[in-house]
TrEMBL record:
InterPro entries, A to Z: SRRP (IPR052293)
Biased composition (Low complexity): 360-382, 440-470, 926-939
Start and end residues of each stretch annotated as Disordered: 360-415, 428-508, 671-730, 832-882, 898-942, 1094-1122
Protein name per the record: Uncharacterized protein
Biased composition (Polar residues): 398-415, 844-858, 906-916
Length: 1134
């Protein structure tokens, strides 16, 4: 849109862009206003997707299927700081990079679908929209652009499998290597058909059904603003759009063919976007022959979804991908399968069953050939008999469904010269074929009625009425819309224009020939027009006088005397004038008479047409009633036959079931005794093994219990030492406090300061010693726990192996019992063969147990754990970030997912492949070995490996030194992926060794990340630990001073102290958790015990006193009164 203020122009913009790539272009904004203009919002560039559906009923739906801002770039901000920016007059250029989504549907210029007289046109368009938002004069630009998808590879295609069985004994299997088809290209099917044992199947069809869901009202909607018309239920249509006839199947036979289906170029692609909903299914139709005057039985088998791709979608597959049957052996041992070419049925042309070749075609010669010309020659298989009169009446209805613009011309249209328009319509319809009608009417026909010879003669005389044959041979040699036919029509119109206004023929010979040709091409669609009333319409037109000039008639003999006076030229002129006046008068009279006769003929023809229409309606109604009655009778007969077959089938099944049950019982009785004896022996062995294993486990448990008691005793001793150390530190702290109080009173300041400094140094020394002792204790404890855990794991693993051994022996017995349905001889042989299996299996399990126990005795060093902050979307650092095949999956599944996800906004695409997936894929599909010229040597690969590792380590330390915090989250993932991609350029050329080094490089990068983060968190925790020690002294002083007297006050003070400890730079949150745990252990828990003890003492009798001072700090802890408590020195069980 060009406004008064300015205009947009796009430079270096490609006409077509692939989905999943980056679009680059220059945007120029030419500001035309002299004083410039200000915008009310940012200048933006958007990629917009618009889906449009237009029907012949006048409904037009248009919808922007993408949410606002999905693909949006800001060209320029509308503010410069806090003030609105003024865009001055001139040219403003912007360089724009736009990422085209990889899941967008390709552009569709115009797709057409016709069903039941409704013509629908679909289009999917993309625009690049540049906007300058302004209150007074906004302007924008919508530039169209075409988007195509990347070629589909083999792994993105899904095979087509159609398998079904019917109750009447038909088994059909149709396979194809892919279910994504192009309508304008041929397709190969692997076909297998098994017919019933006692019935032929003369008619077998493959039908493609098109399903449309068209909008019910006109609307224009966006993803954010949808009117009520967009939520109305859609109008659904379903019709057969392509029918492929297959060879008949004799009774009790199996037919195996490789079918080549001809293209069907008039089909729209499968689409589901906004108001567009086009879907396809394919099925097999089998028709049994009619018997006893009834209609044939029709069965629809193996209905399967089908996906038609747009014409712009390319495939990255081999040339012979569709022609290779994956189920056949590749060594050439399989039998050759015949190949048949099957064209789709065309309206108005008899159904032609394809002919089988005389001999099988070699697979190397399976190339698609051009479709043969449609001829009326005799086929190898018998063609169906002519349709019944009822079907002749129904034929125009089917053809009108297939081509809604085709209709039979009325006599009035023929007289008014409208047949030429009908011929042009027919020509356009044949040039662009529409969906053919169903062909089941030819298979479900009644036997033709027998007419007498007299009736046949009457019908022949009625159908072949005498007409003019002038130029009929010449007209029949050319199609209705050929060049010669158009020239003849133009010459006829010129001849009519040259004559008088009354010289108009009532019926033209050319019109008769054209209508005859149309009726020949489409039988039943155009009835033959009635012959003209006269053999030649020009007989009504008066002919010009044939009297030559200069000859005088008797009617002017009275002027001879006057002619003697006039000159010869004057006499000739006067005679010509009089002759012309007489001729004009006669022609006017004859024209009036001809007009009167034409009017009478027109009225007579209209009356005859009305009577004929009424007779046809009555005959059609009678025929419909007869057909309905026949259908009802046939349905009753089919139901009775089906019921009888079901009863017979049930009786046979009951008899077979009784026989099988008797045999089964006999086998069970024979095997039950032997199975019970074997089970008894195995059970005794299992019980003995369980008792021995139970004794060994109990002894091991006693030994572990003794070790646990020793460890607890050592822990108790360490706790007492730690408590004594705490009491000594507490005494020093009291001395320090006393010195501080003396300093406040002003006594001996210099001496007290020196003493205080010495005491503080001693306190710091004690703190360092305590920290060293705690670290040593923790290390010894960790080693002891690790050794104990390894021993426990070994014992558990041994117990699991023994349990698995017993379980396998039990499962072996159960497997023997489940095999009771086998024959007696085979069961006995299998049991003899499996006697040695338990012993061999126990021996192998014992070896596994010994190997596992050896490996457990030497625990491996622990690997660094993966942090939670690293578990983000970092799975695909190298390639394959685009999910190209999302839209071209199976249509049924894609449709359900799209409908379920439609109410919510589309989520961002997340790649889900691992780092090594692209490399592994490349090695699988690439050559088996690389040449020495292209593959790098080991030294180069190691250099690239070390360089990437050192570069990543320097990058992490640089970020830590600059920002003060380690890199984490998305930045860490991006940095790791950058280094991996740089190293993969060289390592990917090294084959499997390069792939292994790439995986090892990623693992070492993660180890470096965890080490740096652990060192950083340890530093933060040490700073917080010093704060905790200060808080511990402060809280103890407050408790001694009586400022903390209850648990509630203690909790409030602890909560405030924790909030005061700021943990800045804690990227994972674990520093705060460690700080909180240390605070709970060293500050809150000891004070909680003291507070509870004080509350308990204050609640006892007044005569009871506590020993020690400092508010109960030196009181002796009481023993816990709970019987189940394991800590004898605990005051309160935590």
């Amino acid at each position: 849109m060009v406004g008064e203020v300015g205009v947009f122009q796009l430079r270096q913009l490609p006409a077509t862009v692939s989905a999943g790539t980056m679009l680059r272009c220059w945007v120029e904004m030419h500001m035309l206003a002299v004083k410039g203009a200000k915008a009310e919002d940012d200048l933006t560039l958007e990629l917009v997707c618009v889906a449009t559906c237009h029907t012949s009923a006048g409904v037009e739906a248009r919808e922007d299927v993408w949410p606002e801002g999905r693909v949006r770039r800001i060209l320029a901000p509308y503010k410069d700081g806090n003030q609105a920016k003024l865009f001055e007059k001139g040219t403003h250029s912007f360089n724009v990079h736009v990422d085209v989504p990889d899941d967008c549907f390709p552009s569709v210029d115009k797709a057409i679908a016709v069903q039941n007289g409704v013509r629908a046109e679909f289009s999917i368009e993309y625009f690049i929209r540049c906007s300058f938002p302004s209150r007074d004069n906004p302007f924008s630009l919508d530039h169209p652009i075409s988007i195509v998808q990347l070629p589909l590879s083999v792994r993105m295609l899904s095979p087509l499998l159609m398998q079904d069985r019917s109750p009447l004994g038909i088994s059909v299997s149709v396979r194809a290597n892919r279910e994504q088809w192009h309508a304008e290209k041929p397709q190969t099917l692997f076909y297998s058909f098994r017919s019933p044992s006692k019935s032929d199947v003369p008619t077998i069809l493959i039908e493609i059904i098109q399903k449309l869901a068209l909008p019910a009202a006109t609307y224009s909607a966006t993803a954010e603003n949808r009117p009520e018309e967009a939520n109305l239920p859609k109008v659904e249509y379903e019709n057969v759009v392509a029918t492929f006839p297959l060879p008949p199947a004799p009774a009790n036979s199996v037919s195996n063919y490789t079918i080549k289906l001809y293209p069907v170029p008039y089909l729209a692609p499968s689409m589901y976007l906004g108001p567009i909903d086009v879907d396809y299914v394919i099925r097999v139709v089998a028709v049994f022959p009619p018997s006893g005057g009834a209609n044939g039985i029709v069965e629809f088998l193996a209905t399967t979804p089908l996906n038609f791709l747009p014409a712009s979608q390319e495939l990255d597959i081999a040339v012979d991908f569709d022609d290779i049957d994956p189920t056949l052996p590749t060594d050439g041992s399989a039998n050759e399968v015949p190949i048949i070419m099957v064209p789709p049925a065309i309206p108005g042309v008899p159904l032609q069953i394809p002919q089988l070749p005389q001999q099988a075609i070699h697979p190397s010669q399976r190339q698609f050939q051009s479709p043969p010309q449609q001829t009326q020659s005799k086929l190898q298989f018998s063609s169906p008999p002519p349709p019944s009169p009822a079907q002749s009446q129904l034929a125009p209805v089917h053809q009108n469904n297939a081509a809604p613009h085709s209709r039979s011309p009325s006599p009035s249209e023929v007289q008014n010269g409208k047949v030429a328009n009908l011929v042009n319509q027919f020509s356009s319809n044949t040039a662009h074929p529409v969906a053919p009608p169903p062909l089941l009417a030819q298979a479900l026909h009644h036997p033709p009625q027998q007419h007498t010879q007299k009736q046949q003669v009457q019908q022949h005389s009625q159908q072949h009425q005498p007409t003019k044959t002038h130029n009929s041979q010449q007209s029949s040699q050319h199609p209705p819309d050929s060049l010669e036919a158009r020239l003849k029509r133009s010459e006829a119109s010129k001849d009519v224009a040259k004559g008088d206004e009354y010289d108009l023929p009532s019926y033209s010979e050319q019109t008769e020939n054209v209508v005859a040709n149309i009726a020949t091409v489409i039988p039943g669609a155009y009835p033959k027009p009635p012959p003209p009333a006269a053999t030649n319409a020009k007989a009504y037109v008066p002919q010009q006088s044939q009297v030559p000039a200069g000859v005088i008639d008797n009617s002017i003999s009275g002027i001879a005397a006057v002619a003697a006076i006039l000159t010869p030229d004057q006499q000739r002129l006067k005679m010509q004038q009089e002759e012309l006046e007489r001729i004009k008068t006669e022609r006017e009279n004859l024209a009036k008479e001809a007009e009167h006769l034409r009017e009478q003929e027109r009225l007579r023809l209209e009356a005859e047409a009305e009577e004929k229409r009424k007779r046809e309606e009555e005959a059609a109604a009678a025929e419909r009633a007869k057909i309905e009655a026949a259908k009802h009778a046939e349905m009753v007969k089919i139901l009775e036959e089906k019921k009888r077959l079901e009863e017979e089938k049930k009786a046979l099944e009951d008899a077979e079931r009784a026989r099988i049950e008797a045999e089964k019982q006999a086998i069970e009785r024979a095997e039950r005794l032997k199975a019970e004896e074997e089970a008894r022996r195995i059970e005794e062995e299992r019980q003995k093994a369980e008792e021995a294993e139970k004794k060994r486990i109990e002894a091991e448990a006693k030994r572990l219990e003794a070790e646990r008691l020793k460890a607890e005793e050592a822990k108790r001793i360490e706790d007492e030492k730690r408590r004594a150390e705490d009491e000594r530190i507490e005494a020093l702290r009291q001395k320090t406090n006393e010195a501080r109080r003396q300093l406040e009173l002003g006594k001996q300041e210099l001496e007290e300061q020196e003493q205080l400094r010495q005491l503080e140094e001693q306190l710091e020394e004690l703190k360092r010693e305590k920290q060293i002792a705690a670290e040593k204790i923790a290390a010894a404890k960790a080693l002891e726990d690790q050794r104990r855990q390894a021993e426990i794991d070994r014992l558990k693993r041994d117990a699991e192996i023994q349990a698995e051994k017993i379980k396998l022996q039990a499962e072996l017995q159960f497997a023997k019992e489940r095999a009771e349905n086998e024959k007696l001889r085979e069961e006995i042989e299998r049991l003899k063969a499996s006697k040695a299996a338990p012993a061999a299996q126990v021996h192998s399990l014992g070896n596994i147990s010994n190997a596992s126990s050896k490996t457990v005795t030497t625990p491996a060093p622990p690997l660094p754990e993966k942090d939670d902050y690293a578990q983000e979307d970092d799975e695909e650092p190298l390639q394959q970030r685009r999910a190209v095949g999302q839209f071209y999956k199976a249509v049924g599944l894609v449709r359900e997912q799209t409908r379920s996800a439609k109410p919510t906004a589309p989520a961002s695409n997340k790649p889900v492949t691992s780092v090594s997936a692209p490399v592994a894929k490349k090695s699988d599909h690439g050559p088996s070995s690389l040449s020495s010229a292209s593959s790098p040597n080991e030294s180069q690969m190691k250099a690239a490996y070390n360089s990437a590792l050192e570069s990543y380590r320097n990058r992490l330390f640089t970020h830590l030194s600059i920002s003060g915090t380690p890199i984490a989250g998305r930045e860490q993932t991006v940095a790791r992926n950058d280094e991996l991609m740089a190293a993969a350029k060289l390592l990917n050329k090294g084959g499997s060794k390069g792939t292994t080094m790439l995986s090892s490089l990623e693992a070492e990068m993660r180890v470096i990340e965890s080490e740096i983060l652990e060192d950083y968190e340890n530093g933060l925790f040490q700073q917080n630990k010093e704060k905790i020690l200060d808080l511990k002294e402060t809280f103890r002083a407050m408790f001694d001073a009586g400022m903390i007297t209850s648990v509630k006050e203690l909790n409030e003070e602890c909560k405030g102290a924790l909030e005061g400890i700021k943990v800045e730079g804690d990227v994972s949150g674990r520093v705060y958790e460690r700080t909180k745990a240390a605070f709970e252990e060293s500050v809150k828990t000891p004070l909680m015990r003291l507070v509870l003890q004080r509350e308990k003492n204050s609640g006892s009798s007044s005569t009871t006193t506590t020993t020690g001072g400092g508010g109960g700090g030196g009181s002796r802890p009481e023993k816990c009164k709970r019987a189940q408590c394991q800590n004898p020195r605990a005051m309160v069980c935590q």
